[in-house]
Design a protein that fits this description.
mainly beta, Neuraminidase, nine-stranded antiparallel β-sheet, 26 strands, Alkaline phosphatase PhoX, PhoX
């Protein structure tokens, strides 16, 4: 959508490529969904015959690279599969770069001599797979980092992996009870993982030390948009402006400028609460003067995790609730506020900061306008969305991290929300959830992770032409 048409639609109250979505979400429920794929039914995994997913008729799947198995290089696959992106590989294969959201000083997986911090158990793995989920090659690609939650694919064939923590030897222990004094390096940064060569393991410190979640890159400007997931505190929406356009540099350079989104004319605007349908805001950006602050005396983890965001809010930055998934699509950054919105009648408010069941925001980079694309009216429509990706038609795939059954849900440009996939409950693991959805080359396969005690990756394929994925 061109700038003039976008502004015209804003004036009409429609605002952007997701025209009508906010009205559908806020005013009492989603529209009926002819763009769905039909009723969900239990489908057996082609790998071992177990039922892990409920899918529409005609869809199949295969799980692969589960926690505790071996990579093809012989090392063990860690758990907590999370954010992921697919890149084109040779002979029609896909190259997946996958996060592992492992917390605590549990020791690095893979080769500890290559680890950023040999005591930290998170990082990324890189796999070459067929479009039917058959693993051809796999190995660790970044290790010694911590709580690698999500991130984002870069157009120069790299993945930016985000640490959702500020743990380190300079900070008191976090909620998990792990002993931070055992760590050898500070955490809370983003790291670049090239697809075709080894990661350097060098953090981009100027992009901030905070509870990073996702990254979305705008190739027209070279800006990297970042989300923050502070469970018990306000979160912010950031952009990192590197010293040189990453496409020209061939990588993401440190030393740039970190900024935080603010609403024009409304300092510290609270966007975590319920919004009017298609709420639209003009925005500006405030500088973060000290993106990588130094601490003495091992302050409380809760103090450190707010140190960067507090700087922005003191300058008037907007307040969000738990910003998680983000994706750039056709000039717009779509990002998810997991607990944003109003509490629906009959729903129990979630714990932590934010009492809603989820919002989807759309930020058009050229006009610098922010618009509410969708707000969940109740948990049965959308329950605590997390990771997000976009299909070739512009339909968003939302991974749920809800309190009951968790779904992959589609949100179309016209405001229709529909159920595409339900996770089969796992005995003894009520916290299992979807994460890391990403379409492979050509759109034949949707790859997704199940984050669980025994996490795994899954390839899903079928008659996509029946709907709007």
């Amino acid at each position: 959508m061109d700038r003039r048409r976008f502004i015209t639609n804003v004036a009409a109250g429609i605002a952007g490529p997701f025209a009508g979505v906010a009205c559908a979400g806020v005013q009492g429920g989603a529209k009926p969904s002819p763009s769905g794929y039909g009723p969900l039914r239990p489908v057996r995994d082609l790998r071992d015959g177990k039922v892990r997913l409920h899918l529409p008729d005609g869809f199949q799947y295969r799980s692969f690279s589960a926690a505790g198995e071996k990579f093809t290089d012989g090392s063990l696959v860690p758990g907590r599969h999370d954010g992921m992106a697919a890149f084109s590989g040779p002979d029609g294969t896909a190259i997946l770069v996958r996060n592992h959201e492992v917390n605590g000083p549990v020791g690095a997986f893979g080769d500890k001599d290559k680890a950023y911090d040999p005591m930290a158990g998170g990082g990324t793995s890189t796999l070459r797979v067929t479009r039917y989920g058959e693993v051809l090659k796999s190995a660790p690609s970044l290790n010694g980092t911590m709580m690698n939650c999500s991130g984002g694919p870069m157009v120069w064939r790299a993945w930016v992996s985000c640490e959702e923590t500020v743990n380190g030897p300079d900070v008191a222990d976090d909620f998990s009870g792990g002993d931070n004094s055992k760590l050898t390096r500070k955490h809370g940064y983003i790291f670049e993982v090239p697809v075709n060569r080894a990661a350097t393991g060098r953090p981009i410190r100027s992009a901030g030390r905070f509870a990073h979640e996702s990254a979305a890159f705008d190739p027209s400007t070279g800006a990297l948009y970042l989300t923050e997931d502070n469970f018990g505190f306000p979160s912010g929406f950031y952009r990192y402006l590197p010293t040189k356009h990453p496409v020209q540099a061939g990588r993401l350079l440190d030393g740039g400028r970190l900024q935080m989104l603010a609403v024009k004319g409304a300092k510290r605007k609270d966007l975590s609460v319920g919004q009017q349908p298609a709420a639209t805001y003009r925005v500006t950006w405030v500088d973060i003067d000290d993106p990588d602050p130094k601490f003495t005396g091992r302050p409380a983890n809760d103090v450190v995790v707010q140190a960067v965001g507090r700087q922005g809010r003191e300058e008037g930055a907007a307040i969000f609730s738990r910003l998680e998934g983000a994706v750039f699509h056709q000039g717009v950054v779509y990002f998810v506020s997991t607990q944003g919105g109003a509490t629906a009648p009959g729903d129990t408010p979630p714990s932590g900061f934010g009492k809603g069941r989820g919002q989807v925001w759309a930020y058009e980079t050229s006009s610098e306008r922010l618009r509410l694309a969708y707000e969940s009216p109740r948990s049965s429509a959308l329950d605590l969305p997390d990771n997000v990706t976009a299909s070739k038609h512009g339909t968003l795939v939302l991974c749920e991290d809800g309190d009951g059954d968790n779904y992959l849900r589609g949100l179309t440009r016209s405001g229709e929300i529909f159920d595409f996939c339900r996770l089969q409950p796992i005995d003894g693991d009520p916290g299992a959830e979807f994460a890391g959805s990403t379409f492979g080359p050509g759109g034949h396969t949707l790859y997704v992770n199940i984050q669980a005690k025994q996490g795994t990756s899954i390839a899903i394929w079928g008659p996509w032409e029946r709907g709007l994925f």
